[in-house]
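ok so for the tutorial part 2 we go from a plain amino acid sequence to predicted structure tokens. step 1 is just haveing the sequence, like this:
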Amino acid sequence: MRRVAAEGWSHVILDGKLFDCDRLTETTLSVKGETIDAWCSGKHRDFGANIQAVMRPDGLPIRTSETVPGHLHDTRCARDLGVTAALN
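step 2 — the prediction. this is what the tokens look like for a chain of 88 residues:
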């Protein structure tokens, strides 16, 4: 974020992407308390890994996150990985 300020960028872009992966056997509890596959995205109805990226205004990535299970929403991933705290 120091680089953003030093180079005078007007903004950065935060975006998440679900990348396809094979089914993994990890399970977790949903917000409803049901057991679900951790790497299964209900929105995409597929297994995947969620990756968050912070990009320059022209779209070039300056930081990417580690992979997190696909059942997590982009906003939660960014918050849990500390990306939103760094942007603030």
